[in-house]
Structures are given as C-alpha cells and as structure tokens.
C-alpha cells in the first residue's frame, strides 16, 4: 500500500494488510498484500473444515495465508 500523510483520504485509508474475522461458525482470514505471507492460528476456534479445499483443520493449527488470498474455515 502506498504511504500517505495522516488525514489524507484515499481508497487505501483504513485498509489493513491482514484481516481475521469470526462470523457465526466461520473463521475468515484475508491477506490483502501483494508480497507478504501471514500465519492464521485456529487456537480458540476449534476443529474445522477448509471450505476452499475440503481439508480438515485441527483445533490448534497454523495455516499460511498467501498474498492476495482468503481462507474460510467452518467449525465442526
């Protein structure tokens, strides 16, 4: 993301590089960068299923979230 002066409005204002959200039975992670990897931990969420590839995910897993990708897990 381009650096901007404080108080200058742009489409990037308030945009984070990584988002983690629990919505009902879903754990959603979004990597909005072009060049950084992030690690999503499922501790506290429990066992789940990755909705993209169908893989089972353990309760204390660490998943790599690649640049420009989203991970969606559904708790079991």
Explain what the structure shows:
By secondary structure, the chain is mainly beta. The chain has one domain (18-75): Sandwich (Immunoglobulin-like), CATH 2.60.40.1180. 0% of the residues lie in helices and 41% in strands. The protein has no helices and seven strands. The protein has strands at residues 18-23, 26-31, 38-41, 48-50, 56-57, 62-65, 70-75. A five-stranded antiparallel sheet has the order 1-2-7-4-5, with no helix packed on it. Strands 3-6 form a two-stranded antiparallel ribbon. Strand 4 (48-50) and strand 5 (56-57) form a beta hairpin. The radius of gyration is 15 Å and the shape is elongated.
Output the keywords.
single chain; 76 residues; mainly beta; Immunoglobulin-like; five-stranded antiparallel beta sheet; 7 strands; 41% strand
Q: Identify low-pLDDT runs.
A: none
Whole-number tally of structural domains: 1
CATH topology: Immunoglobulin-like
Give me the oligomer status: single chain
Shape: elongated
Class computed from helices, strands and strand pairing: mainly beta
Helix content: under 10%
Radius of gyration over all CA atoms, rounded? 15 Å
CATH class descriptor name: Mainly Beta
What's the gist of this structure?
The protein is mostly beta strands and 76 residues long. It has strands at 18-23, 26-31, 38-41, 48-50, 56-57, 62-65, 70-75.
Topology:
Blueprint: E1 18-23, E2 26-31, E3 38-41, E4 48-50, E5 56-57, E6 62-65, E7 70-75
Antiparallel strand pairs: 1-2, 2-7, 3-6, 4-5, 4-7
């Amino acid at each position: 993301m381009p650096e901007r002066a404080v108080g200058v409005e742009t489409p990037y204002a308030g945009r984070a590089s990584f988002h983690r959200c629990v919505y009902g039975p879903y754990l959603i992670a979004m990597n909005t960068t072009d060049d950084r990897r992030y690690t999503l931990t499922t501790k506290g969420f429990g066992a789940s299923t990755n909705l993209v590839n169908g893989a089972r995910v353990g309760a204390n897993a660490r998943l790599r979230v690649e640049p420009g990708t989203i991970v969606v897990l559904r708790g079991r």
